[in-house]
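haha ok so turns out i had the wrong file open the whole time. this is the CORRECT one, sorry everyone. sequence first:
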Amino acid sequence: MFTNNPYAQGGWYNPANPLSINNGTWGSQSAPQPSVYGALPNAIPPAPPKILTFYFVSLRPNILNSTVIGPQSQKYFDISTSSPNVGASTVFLKSGQPFAAIEWTNQPAVEVYGLVPRQTTARWMELSRDQSYRSIQVHGKWYAWVPRDSVYSLFTVGPNQPELLARISREPDTIKLEVTAHAVQIGLLESVVVATVLLQSGRNIG
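then structure:
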């Protein structure tokens, strides 16, 4: 959907440009830049975003059959796949109600009920021309998944400074998903979970 990497602008990390800056880990701070805060007495910079952490556990043998544990070690979601090689994956709420489905065909398709109409995964998570990020649309707004090494980060897209909303990383025997409280408040959690399943499935999603 986007012809240029929006994160190459303003110094955001760009996999195609090793000279880009701000490539530290989430929560790390680079050298302070000149801002209006320096002109205001006793001004307090914004607090870092509140982060909610989820883990995909009980990988059987991978994320396509797993359970998602969230804050206070509570179960939030289950992922179940009908066949290890073909068939479909269903994502369930902790109540047991399905809320998303992924069809593993030659052109995999995805649907998040009430949020994302059925479409190919290649369309929902469109790969940029330079293959440096994937665009995703939820609630009529665009976001971008940007990979770096084995970590995927979700950013806002638009004229303002990109905001980091989620991050996926691998740990021994689990997959870690960090989501800001703001992302949850604006209704992105379910779509982010489904995107995590796709990105960590090991399948070709287009």
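Residues 1-25, 27-41 have pLDDT under 50 and may be disordered.
again sry for the mixup
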